[in-house]
Amino acid sequence: MNLDFSNEEKEFRKSIRQWMKENVPDDIRRCTARGAMLDKNMQQRWERLLGSQGWLTSTWPEQFGGPGWSATQRYIFDQERASAGAPPTSPFGVAMVGPVLYTFGSEAQKERWLPGIQRGETLWCQGYSEPNAGSDLASLKTRATRNGDHYLVNGQKIWTTQAHWADMMFCLVRTDSTVKQQQGISFLLIDMKTPGLEVRPIYSIDGHHHLNEVYFTDVKVPVENLVGQEGMGWTIAKFLLTHERTTIAGVADIHYEINRLKSAIDALPTETDKQLAVRRLAGLEVDLMALEYTNFRTVAATDEGKPFGPESSGLKIKGTELQQRVSQAMVEIGGLMSLPWDNEEPIGEQIFNQASRRYNFLRACTIYGGSNEIQKNVLAKMLLGL
Amino acid sequence: MDFKLPENTTMIADTARRYLKDNYSFDTYIAQLNESNHLEANRWQAMNDLGWFGLPFAESVGGYGGSLLDVCAIVQELGAALCLDPFVDLIVSPGKLLEFANTPTSLSLLDRIIAGEARVACGLYDRHAGYHVLNPSLRLNGERLSGQKHVVSDGGVADTVLVSAMSGDELVIVALPFDACDVERYRLLDGSRAASLTLDDVLITDEMVLCRGDAAKQAVSAWFDYLCALDCARMYGACRELYQATLEYARTRKQFGTTIGSFQVIQHYLVDAFIDLQQLESMLLMVSVKGESECNSERIRATSAAKAYYASQAVGIAQQGIQIHGGVGVTEELNIGHYFRLITHASLSNGNREHHITRFCQAGGE
């Protein structure tokens, strides 16, 4: 038993902290501190900056261009990144299609797509959900029909985050409707500029445009964009559910949010208000500590070569719940100050000014990436044998 | 970081589990529940033979130098077995207070505890001071001690009690015989035995005062944190068993022609309990290490966080365990309700959630 970081890890932390101090752009830092959303330019500048250090793909094995960090180092990096006020990176390229390509892709696919992800140049989006295939993903209907050296894709995807920014989409499509649902699904890479592909915005309750509908009408996709074989799509999707989840709980960003809220307590009207807020925050901090030590255990286990399996779903469930509770606390503690929506000048403390947008935004986090109820169904089956 | 238990701790835990499996069944517990004397000679001797009496204490004071982690491993198994043998009340609790007090008189009394020769209890609580152990309501005026102590956990058999009192502004710890007090004995929520003591101008000689002032405060404060960690260990052991029993019940209990574990709502309750149990285990590992830290703020932060967390989540698992069992969960015949009482009890001894949230806020650090 040892709950301390090693001296080498402490040195690593120091060097990352120093780099963050010198390199996180001021406009990005200010934007995060305000609790506002980054625009495409800021997000991409930040990811390219990390890419130029070789740190964007820190979870990748060294042979595919990862920096060779241990899980502990990746965890420390994430802590320092968040506490410096830098945003998390977009998961679609780095955490999703990248690992899929180096695990299931052909040499040609790896060569063609991995470098762009590594450098933060190619932006990806995820084409999974459909209007009638949400939690019941396997019932998806978007069709890909083989036609010589290409597929013709027809159908519709929905809730596609950042489709309006993306260069590429990785997409689950039905290539065979004569077999069992799960076995007829394939994994395709689709260029967002292909004719017949149309992106329409969906505005979410935080007032922003993150989500989209994507329509496909005879979209031509070259067969070399099929990953693995036809019918392997479901296997690939499941692989992503347990792949590298040591920072999925969002512990580092929850710490940052709690500290932001702490710094705003002085702006509350009375001593009683302040005391109640401090106690409520303490309750959240205690819950965060339980999440964090569980996270430490998964990190330590990963470094010993015994990564957690489906148990790590607990981190996603608890982490997203806690993100929501912290954002709710921020809105409720801010009270009157949380009500203005589109004003330039905050009334009172700046931090509460964007709090209600963030609170609205985070209602989605227990839904995306497999709703928490679906995660629980999976856990009940895989772990509890129910 | 490394979360693997040291080999020695694993051995201690395995031994405790095996010993209790062979010697302490649910029937043993029910029988003991109805006794007013909880010191059963054979099992007491067996624990002594296992080396548990010396384990919690440093080698320099005559113990075997076990860590808090080791003691938590035993207490976890005691909780899992619902064991009422007063190992904590008569050995660990008074022994650690005496060790932390670290005076010649306290250490010689500790010698006798380790040897299994003394029946000493801690009397640090009274209803007027509540959980504020550094400001008890008992008063030492000159040589005379007066006031009350409540919930003095002693297995129903202690003959000596370590009480805290204020002497002016100073905290003092005094060892005195039960005989000097008016004693009322009763059972507690978890089935253990305790007493209320009324002291009326009891004569205190100098050699009965073990320590005073800052030294006494430091000793009581360290004792409180140590006991908080043990509360968590006990609750974890109980929760672990209760969860397993509930899962098993959901797999086998049939209603509407199928097992209730096939219903999604039951599955989700159980997954929630699984995840909470995982986090409770993380908090236990954390507090088992940091609960004896010499840095006061780190120690207080760790124990109060753990105790506050247990008071909501462990209690939550216990409540849900009863709910999933349905009617049979609220009966005396089934162990589930007894685990519920144990967990509720441990969440209220040595500080409830509110007390620990306050203490966590005041601890600073991080």
From TrEMBL, chain A:
<comment type="similarity">
    <text>Belongs to the acyl-CoA dehydrogenase family.</text>
</comment>
<dbReference type="InterPro" id="IPR009075">
    <property type="entry name" value="AcylCo_DH/oxidase_C"/>
</dbReference>
<dbReference type="InterPro" id="IPR013786">
    <property type="entry name" value="AcylCoA_DH/ox_N"/>
</dbReference>
<keyword id="KW-0285">Flavoprotein</keyword>
<dbReference type="InterPro" id="IPR037069">
    <property type="entry name" value="AcylCoA_DH/ox_N_sf"/>
</dbReference>
<feature type="domain" description="Acyl-CoA dehydrogenase/oxidase C-terminal">
    <location>
        <begin position="231"/>
        <end position="383"/>
    </location>
</feature>
<dbReference type="Pfam" id="PF02770">
    <property type="entry name" value="Acyl-CoA_dh_M"/>
</dbReference>
<dbReference type="GO" id="GO:0005886">
    <property type="term" value="C:plasma membrane"/>
</dbReference>
<dbReference type="InterPro" id="IPR009100">
    <property type="entry name" value="AcylCoA_DH/oxidase_NM_dom_sf"/>
</dbReference>
<dbReference type="Pfam" id="PF02771">
    <property type="entry name" value="Acyl-CoA_dh_N"/>
</dbReference>
<dbReference type="Pfam" id="PF00441">
    <property type="entry name" value="Acyl-CoA_dh_1"/>
</dbReference>
<dbReference type="InterPro" id="IPR046373">
    <property type="entry name" value="Acyl-CoA_Oxase/DH_mid-dom_sf"/>
</dbReference>
<keyword id="KW-0560">Oxidoreductase</keyword>
<feature type="domain" description="Acyl-CoA oxidase/dehydrogenase middle">
    <location>
        <begin position="125"/>
        <end position="219"/>
    </location>
</feature>
<dbReference type="InterPro" id="IPR036250">
    <property type="entry name" value="AcylCo_DH-like_C"/>
</dbReference>
<keyword id="KW-0274">FAD</keyword>
<protein>
    <submittedName>
        <fullName>Acyl-CoA dehydrogenase</fullName>
    </submittedName>
</protein>
<dbReference type="GO" id="GO:0050660">
    <property type="term" value="F:flavin adenine dinucleotide binding"/>
</dbReference>
<feature type="domain" description="Acyl-CoA dehydrogenase/oxidase N-terminal">
    <location>
        <begin position="7"/>
        <end position="121"/>
    </location>
</feature>
<dbReference type="GO" id="GO:0016627">
    <property type="term" value="F:oxidoreductase activity, acting on the CH-CH group of donors"/>
</dbReference>
<dbReference type="InterPro" id="IPR006091">
    <property type="entry name" value="Acyl-CoA_Oxase/DH_mid-dom"/>
</dbReference>
<dbReference type="InterPro" id="IPR052161">
    <property type="entry name" value="Mycobact_Acyl-CoA_DH"/>
</dbReference>
TrEMBL record, chain B:
<dbReference type="InterPro" id="IPR046373">
    <property type="entry name" value="Acyl-CoA_Oxase/DH_mid-dom_sf"/>
</dbReference>
<dbReference type="Pfam" id="PF02771">
    <property type="entry name" value="Acyl-CoA_dh_N"/>
</dbReference>
<feature type="domain" description="Acyl-CoA dehydrogenase/oxidase N-terminal">
    <location>
        <begin position="7"/>
        <end position="83"/>
    </location>
</feature>
<dbReference type="Pfam" id="PF00441">
    <property type="entry name" value="Acyl-CoA_dh_1"/>
</dbReference>
<dbReference type="InterPro" id="IPR036250">
    <property type="entry name" value="AcylCo_DH-like_C"/>
</dbReference>
<dbReference type="GO" id="GO:0003995">
    <property type="term" value="F:acyl-CoA dehydrogenase activity"/>
</dbReference>
<dbReference type="InterPro" id="IPR009100">
    <property type="entry name" value="AcylCoA_DH/oxidase_NM_dom_sf"/>
</dbReference>
<dbReference type="InterPro" id="IPR013786">
    <property type="entry name" value="AcylCoA_DH/ox_N"/>
</dbReference>
<dbReference type="GO" id="GO:0050660">
    <property type="term" value="F:flavin adenine dinucleotide binding"/>
</dbReference>
<dbReference type="InterPro" id="IPR009075">
    <property type="entry name" value="AcylCo_DH/oxidase_C"/>
</dbReference>
<comment type="similarity">
    <text>Belongs to the acyl-CoA dehydrogenase family.</text>
</comment>
<feature type="domain" description="Acyl-CoA dehydrogenase/oxidase C-terminal">
    <location>
        <begin position="232"/>
        <end position="357"/>
    </location>
</feature>
<protein>
    <submittedName>
        <fullName>Acyl-CoA dehydrogenase</fullName>
    </submittedName>
</protein>
<keyword id="KW-0285">Flavoprotein</keyword>
<keyword id="KW-0274">FAD</keyword>
<dbReference type="InterPro" id="IPR037069">
    <property type="entry name" value="AcylCoA_DH/ox_N_sf"/>
</dbReference>
<keyword id="KW-0560">Oxidoreductase</keyword>
